[in-house]
Amino acid sequence: MHEISVAAALMRRVLAEKEARKLERISQIVLQIGPMSGIMPDALQFAYDSLREGTQLEGTELVIHSAELTTCCRHCLHLFDSRLMHTRCPRCGSEELQIMGGDEFFIQYLVTEKV
Amino acid sequence: MSEIIPIGEKVLSDNDRLAAEIRARLARLNLPSLNLVSSPGSGKTSLLEKTLAHFGGRLRIALIAGDVQTDNDARRLAAAGGALVRPIVTGGACHLDARMVSRVLAEMELEGCGLLIIENVGNLVCPSSYDLGEDKKVVLLSTAEGDDKPLKYPAIFRRAALLVITKTDLLGLSDFDLERAARHARMINPEIEILHLSSRSGEGMADWYAWLERLTRRPAAAVPDAGGNPLE
Question: Measured between CA atoms, how close is B151 to chain A, in angstroms?
Fold first, then answer.
């Protein structure tokens, strides 16, 4: 469970951005997280919600967009989306599969409010 | 009025910047480096003990041993002949990050070393998120675990250059299937190299030593230079 340290790093990163760009108020932080990133979205949300209290990000909401996981069958080249690991191709039954992408873990954008 | 500020940067970019500094320093020293990751109890420390004893004075290995609460692993490795062993006791944290490694490296005398091995905290999840500036990640999986672990913990298998299947002397005592484990690992990462060995019986150890020797014999030009200033 490293989501607490990840949430802390995220907050430092966003506060540095706020400072550098002289942003007044950030209403949302929007993240993209892939199923192969090793980050659990629920745990990160919980860690962030706990850590933000009493900081400059107290009123800032964390929005997490989950990325899809695409698997390719190397036998019949069938491409299919799944969040869970498959061990067989749903079309031809081959076990020669390859996972494509899913490593995403980045800040897509911030939503700011001008008073 | 709302405004959208695109960022498009990794959340752990601070860690990655520090890791790039470490990578550049190691490249200047022409020192190859490994980050060893596995579940608790899959045999990282035993493998390293045997490795230190095997290379003896022929190859000076610098070791950073991460542990949650004791420096037992670092003591074991120093007793096994590790000339340069430093512990990182994380005090509860489940992974090493670039900041911890950078601090310890700053105090290590790395001149004359031929290889740096960082033994991560026993955990297959969290260490996968943190680049430590190493050349390659090596993941260990013991035959006492499930052969579907690559599918259950895909992130680390995705990022590892080498999978070492350990405790092969126990094969046959569990349902662990070498072929199935390899197939699952290649499904996550088609490029991954795979070795199997037993530190206890010595089976397969020669392949591991040969793999390490290849790593230490690479030409200086092949060292990746991430972010180092060429004019330094």
Answer: 6
